[in-house]
Design brief:
heterotetramer; A: about 230 residues; alpha/beta; Glutaconate Coenzyme A-transferase; 9-stranded mixed β-sheet; 3-stranded antiparallel β-sheet; 7 helices; 12 strands; globular; B: about 220 residues; 3-stranded mixed β-sheet; 4 helices; about 15% helix; about 30% strand
Chain lengths: ~230, ~220, ~230, ~220
């Protein structure tokens, strides 16, 4: 059973230099309150594993949206992502040399995280064959030919922390994601040593129909009640 | 044609490539406008790689930008019969050949059907996002783009920018014509009546094979 | 959009000798009405890709349960499974030489089907290392050492047909599985040329909440209304 | 001890290995009876590899054998807070190290912690089912079995039957004692007071290292 903690407790357990997976796509599905608290913590040197750098402006008028806050506050020293074009600060910090950015094809990125969580030795994907991705020594184990077709063997991805957002989270930690917020959170919840879920709504165990649970509570270590936590 | 006319001319032509019932992924920019140009009787199902099937524009009531956006971060929703899923499932669909057509833009395409559309070294590092998976996995890959960039050809003998994927493009649609990627090379199968085949070739680095059945683009 | 067909039409499209994936675990999740009709069709020489051979007795008093009907009627010439111990007829037919049986570890079996449907080159799993599974040339591409640990590269599995059971299936083909019936059906729906779903209940598009759709209708070619079809 | 007493003796001891909050997968047969023997204050969550978490016996009301069975095909249900999922997700949990303990039977175990429990060539071909994944993936692997089979040792220097997996077993619990698999070999850490260490060794092919802290099994 997961432990229910406050925003402050969640931030406190994340040390400087941690590798952190954050669910979300252009901010949609980022755990906004945890990220906001982390962005004000003064901690940094993070390795951020997130699909993208979100964007400066958020849909509810936020000045910086989701993980863009961590980037704006220069808390990220290394970013592993698939697309960073819509947050110009990523490019700026990269060109300054203050941030390393590694770009991975999105389908491979998702599957590498799944492989990390599912005990697989890697992912054999045709994506990236013949491109400079083949040369990403940190992420590509080898190029292999199987039954006449070439594949890249991409290494599994893991992290110290996964920060996930769930619309409904029950007392047993089971997560139900709304709309398009599920994206990478589902895989990340399996691939990190410590998984913290921000719950938009905490519900009783059993309130999510057992068939409709998307991430089993066994993957979840901590739940932050995002609703109560920040009013 | 001005910029806007060029765009709508290209998109209108691309829309005719889609068949009723197709499952389609549309790249950011021009391709997202295709649904507005579909011929009567043609309905397609739109996938967004961030985990939506059956994407439709949202109404005032369904507007829910914190929870429901497409791959361009535009607030959208799904039609009845659509669904949401995670990114592994989404790219399983894409890589596994379950998407009938993807339409996307390009910086360069070459006569082998290779494409570059994700990075300009030293200038732009947007990232490949889902593009590398889409062009490798979709059953049919259609590139829509302006024929040239500041007067320079974008259809080359060999792509010069870092590749998105090799040998994957099936069709190129520009404001000058429609080109099929074949084993023999690029075949100009339709032409904008404003241009001659010589003019199209003049704006193209790759060698164009003019189809014996060359038709007016429409 | 899938086509809604009758049981007879479903059976008619499956030719002798077809490779057929059937969802289910010990009969639970087998598409019982489609299997029953197929078992009475006189067709055979099937390659059956199914977790197990189910069992003779079913929970509702069936003499043969699920795929056990196909086995009893000697319609299966080749079975790819993970466990066949609870259906003694499998062992008998194997020992007679009338049925070939290939046994694969269950987690690899599931993941090989997923790989087949997701365009991956195979599955790198530690399961089976050091066992006779290493020698399954039809299923194991190679033994690989990655970062000091050994893995088997298991080949993707595909089939001509997947026969799936859904508790609720909407008009767009979206599937919702009840209880433990989901098992292999989810992956099989992605890995076969033709996917036929038996619907316990046909519902309107939209009746399954979009987040709770388990198998997208885009994977489904045909739906048999199991409720109406057999009363 | 008769058969039934042997079983409950083994299971009662195995139950003490489980800690409150553990996620557990229990093999068919003896291990499935463990929940009845859990010490007070210890609650575990039971996974079934066919796609259930939080398995509990079904009541008359929840009995639903067409839709809800465990990996032994027994009708079950899940407790509030439990869930259902597909087989890929299930074995992702198992292979990925998200199951704390698996308890299962064996035909043979050896001093390197290798195990054989899925096939007797020429006699029985049940298949490995999920066993190969479970013993490779679970964080802790506990074998519960009778110490001998018709008087013949089942704990060997090297397994002779086809292996389920190599070097994976952590603990062996029989009616004679508890043996830990260590780098040095099998350590007899607890003994049934009805037997002497010599008697246990006599029923065991593998060499047993008698722990200096040998305790009575209880």
């Amino acid at each position: 059973m997961p432990k229910f903690i406050t925003l402050a407790e969640a931030v406190e357990m994340i040390p400087d230099g941690a590798s952190i997976m954050v669910g979300g796509f252009m901010g949609c599905g980022n755990p906004h309150k945890v990220i906001d608290a982390l962005s004000k913590s003064g901690k940094g040197n993070f390795k951020l594993i997130c699909n993208d750098g979100a964007q400066p402006g958020g849909p509810m008028g936020e000045e910086y949206y989701g993980v863009a806050k961590l980037i704006h506050n220069r808390q990220v020293k290394h970013m592993v992502a698939t697309h960073v074009g819509l947050n110009p600060e990523v490019g700026l910090q990269m060109n300054e040399g203050s941030m390393r950015v590694d770009l991975i094809p999105q389908g491979s990125f998702a599957e590498m995280i799944r492989a990390g969580g599912a005990g697989l030795g890697g992912v054999l994907t045709p994506t990236g064959v013949g491109t400079i991705v083949e040369d990403y020594r940190d992420y590509v184990h080898s190029v292999q030919e199987i039954d006449g077709r070439k594949y890249l063997l991409m290494k599994p991805l893991k992290a110290d922390f996964a920060l996930i957002s769930g619309y409904k989270v029950d007392k047993a930690g089971n997560v139900w994601y709304k709309g398009s917020t599920r994206n990478f959170g589902w895989a990340m919840a399996t691939a990190a040593k410590t998984v913290i879920v921000e719950a938009d709504n905490v519900v009783e165990a059993g309130e999510i129909e057992p068939e409709n649970v998307m991430t089993s509570g066994i993957f979840v270590d901590y739940v932050v009640d995002g609703g109560k936590a920040n009013g | 044609m001005d910029k806007e006319n060029i765009k709508s001319y290209i998109i209108a032509r691309a829309a005719k490539e889609l068949k009723d019932g197709d499952i389609v992924n549309l790249g950011i920019g021009m391709p997202t406008m295709i649904p507005n140009y579909l011929p009567e009787g043609v309905e397609v199902t739109i996938q967004a790689e961030n985990g939506l099937m059956g994407v439709v524009p949202c109404t005032k009531e369904s507007y829910d930008p914190v929870y429901k956006v497409d791959a361009g971060a535009t607030p959208v929703t799904v039609a009845p019969g659509g669904c949401y899923f995670d990114s592994c499932t989404s790219f399983g669909m894409i890589r596994g050949g379950h998407i009938d057509v993807t339409v996307l833009g390009a910086l360069e395409v070459d006569e082998k059907g290779s494409i570059s559309n994700w990075i300009i070294p030293g200038k732009k590092l947007p990232g490949m996002g889902g593009a590398m998976d889409l062009v490798v996995g979709a059953k049919r890959v259609i590139v829509t783009m302006e024929h040239t960039q500041k007067g320079e050809p974008k259809i080359l003998k060999n792509c010069r920018l870092p590749l998105t994927a090799i040998n994957c493009v099936d069709l190129i649609i520009t404001e000058m014509g429609v080109m099929e990627v074949t084993d023999a090379g690029l075949v100009l199968s339709e032409i904008n009546p404003e241009f001659t085949p010589e003019q199209v070739q003049g704006a193209t680095e790759a060698t164009l094979i003019v189809s014996p059945n060359l038709k007016p683009m429409a």
